[in-house]
């Protein structure tokens, strides 16, 4: 199964460090960040889970639930959480999915469906493609998906920036330019004619007939970082 942007996220039930969840029910009414890991007790992933725990309040302020996935059992996750807190100073209180049989990784297209074995018979190198981030909207559709190699730690400030952009563009008929940060000017969507753009946003800057800039519509409402 190859997932694409705007596909409905697969439904599944799974054991997690917070008990059994039905993923679609668990998301209900919220945004969701799902990020996956090939094995417990791996160095880069350890720093990542701790980094997320350190900024979890920022995701919560954006009505975004966070859930991790690793190809190991719940009991292993529970032990790993102790190492994560020891190494990073942050306790992992968000749920971690146990994908011991690799079923969910295959469902999301992170592993070939025909791959044999289970988490305890496969090394992290065997499972290195299980390093994908999915940002999912309240409509349960995939808004962003990013795959990372095992050697490169994920930047969760960047994922917060992407979430800000997704929420902004979902609420207003705008898009964000290169290197946009919350509070920067945005682009009026090409589908909005000039007359309607004037009604919506007042005056705007025309850099090209198809590139019209306007101050961020909800600038005063955006949560501050830090």
Describe the protein.
This protein has 226 residues and is α+β, with helices and mostly antiparallel strands. It folds into two domains: 13-154, Glutaredoxin (3-Layer(aba) Sandwich); 172-221, Antioxidant, Horf6, Chain A, domain 2 (2-Layer Sandwich). It is 30% helix and 22% strand. It is elongated. The model is unreliable at 220-226 (pLDDT under 50).
Brief summary of the model shown:
The protein has helices at 23-27, 43-54, 56-61, 74-88, 103-107, 156-171, 194-201, and strands spanning 13-16, 19-22, 31-37, 64-70, 96-98, 132-136, 142-147, 174-175, 186-188, 205-208, 211-214.
Count up the domains.
2
Main pleated-sheet profile: 5 strands, mixed
Ranges where pLDDT stays below 50 over 5 or more residues in a row are 220-226
What value does the Rg take, in angstroms?
A: 19 Å
Give short descriptive properties of this protein.
four-stranded antiparallel β-sheet; 226 residues; 30% helix; 7 helices; five-stranded mixed β-sheet; Antioxidant, Horf6, Chain A, domain 2; Glutaredoxin; alpha+beta
